[in-house]
Design goal:
Elements lengths: L14 H7 L5 E3 L13 E3 L6 H16 L2 E6 L10 E4 L2 E7 L6 E6 L3 E7 L6 H11 L8 H8 L4
Parallel strand pairs: 2-7, 3-5
Antiparallel strand pairs: 1-2, 3-6, 4-5, 6-7
Helix pairs in contact: 1-3, 3-4
Length: about 160
Amino acid sequence: MSTGRDSPRMTPLPPDAVHRAVAPGTAVVRLETTTDRRGVLDGAWWPRSRDISAELPALIRALTELLGPVTRVGLDASAWDGLPTRLVVDDRVVRVDSFPVGDDTVLITRGDQDHFSLLAVPPHATPEAARAAMTEAVRADNTVQAAQILIDTGTSP
């Protein structure tokens, strides 16, 4: 689904179809909640820049369309330019928390208990490397941590 420059495309496709669909600003999501953060990823996101105030609202809008209201986002402050403590997206306040999760992971909370972990592909990644990383992240049997996926696919910073 593409909704223009201000919204990432959401690509709920099987991993083999990701290679044909991924472009900068895309979020690939497998809708399964996780209860721990030991490398299990629910999807991936390829932002266009490190400007979180410009990038995050589009991701939140796209995820809200699929998941319902997003209440909280966890990011590593060292990976983003000017991390705010909250954003207002479509008249909803979304809390932004700084966690030492690394610049390769974004934690999304829906409601009070549903947590989703997304691989954050660096904006500088080549299309081929980003596609490979996103494909690995959405594999249902993936147990590789986000940082290792980026190393293995040549997309690490």
